[in-house]
Design a protein that fits this description.
With about 260 residues, the chain is an alpha/beta fold. The chain folds into 2 domains: about 1-130 and about 220-255, Rossmann fold, CATH 3.40.50; about 140-215, Alpha-Beta Plaits, CATH 3.30.70. The chain is about 25% helix and about 25% strand. The chain contains 7 helices and 16 strands. It has helices spanning about 5-20, 35-50, 60-70, 80, 110-115, 150-160, 200-205; strands at about 30, 55-60, 85-90, 95, 100, 120-125, 140-145, 170, 175, 175-180, 185-190, 210-215, 215, 225, 230-235, 240-245. A 7-stranded mixed sheet has the order 2-1-3-6-14-15-16, sandwiched between helices. A hairpin with a 5-residue loop joins strand 4 and strand 5. The radius of gyration is 18 Å and the shape is globular. About 45% of the residues are buried. The structure holds ribulose-5-phosphate.
């Protein structure tokens, strides 16, 4: 990336940079998945290496686990620590109540387990993911491979009568083969266009046999750090209703910007 971030990458970077202010020495952290969360992992790696920050991370995907190892963030399993102080993760969409769509990267299951097992979840995002009503981004639903076509038909049927605008689902592909999650499952992307009642939809989807979990995160996120391409960040805390804005400086000759594989 050689010292020249696009405005979008800069927005993601400054969001991650501000979000690590929530991290304290000794914390057990959920490490999210995706390009924004990857910045957070790299920044934490630098803090571990250069400032001696003492943290333990629980990655939400094999990709994040690989990156954490690469940059020197110590990792463990959720079964080892059982509960976390904080999770920082990205999102595909967020609404004014901080309800989220996640799973664009296919890691929604581990992401939801880890975020739910955390005292606090902080979302890192660029401003483009902000919506009034969720649903323009196709909603990922993780299903077991056995009988997935029946599961798909049942999901489409279960949408009848719900407050959504589209009702079709498609199997996510990786090249020509079905995409396989870290848990060995498939992803159905639901093209709903508008989700009028995310809480109801989430409950309906999780009743369908074959569905493991859906990508709606309702009442899980506590705060969001929204990055902009000019270095501005906005921090919204949904619990205490505060909104703070500040500008984050980006020094692009930093070690963080070299050897970026993501
Ligand atoms: C992965 C996710 C990601 O958090 C989401 O897709 C956002 O990714 P990015 O930061 O690359 O836009 O849910 O399953």
């Amino acid at each position: 990336m050689g010292g020249h971030l696009s405005p979008m990458e800069k927005a993601k970077f400054v969001a991650a940079k501000r979000a690590v202010d929530y991290v304290e020495d000794g914390m057990r952290l959920g490490l999210g998945t995706g390009s924004t969360a990857a910045w957070m992992v790299r920044i934490l790696g630098e803090m571990v290496r250069e400032e001696g920050l003492n943290i333990t991370g629980v990655p939400t995907s094999s990709r994040t686990a690989d990156l954490a190892r690469e940059v020197g963030v110590p990792i463990t399993t959720l079964d080892e620590v059982k509960w976390l102080d904080l999770t920082i993760d990205g999102a595909d969409e967020f609404d004014p109540d901080l309800n989220l769509i996640k799973g664009g990267g296919g890691a929604l299951l581990q992401e939801k387990i880890v975020a739910t097992a955390s005292d606090m979840m902080v979302v890192v995002s660029d401003a483009s993911k902000q919506v009034e009503t969720l649903g323009a981004f196709p909603l990922p639903v993780e299903v077991i491979p056995f009988g997935w076509q029946t599961t798909k038909a049942l999901i489409e049927e279960s949408l009848t009568g719900l407050d959504v605008m589209g009702r079709s689902a498609s199997l996510r592909l990786n090249h020509d083969a079905p995409f396989v999650t870290d848990e060995g499952n498939h992803i159905l992307d639901l093209h709903l266009r508008r989700i009028g009642n995310p809480r109801q939809l989430s409950m309906v989807l999780n009743q369908v046999p074959g569905v493991v979990e859906n990508g709606l995160f309702i009442d899980i996120a506590d705060a969001i750090v929204i990055g902009h391409g000019d270095g501005l960040v906005e921090v919204r805390d949904i619990n205490n209703g505060t909104v703070e804005r500040e500008r984050i400086g980006v020094v692009e000759d930093d070690n963080l910007f070299t050897d970026i594989a993501d």
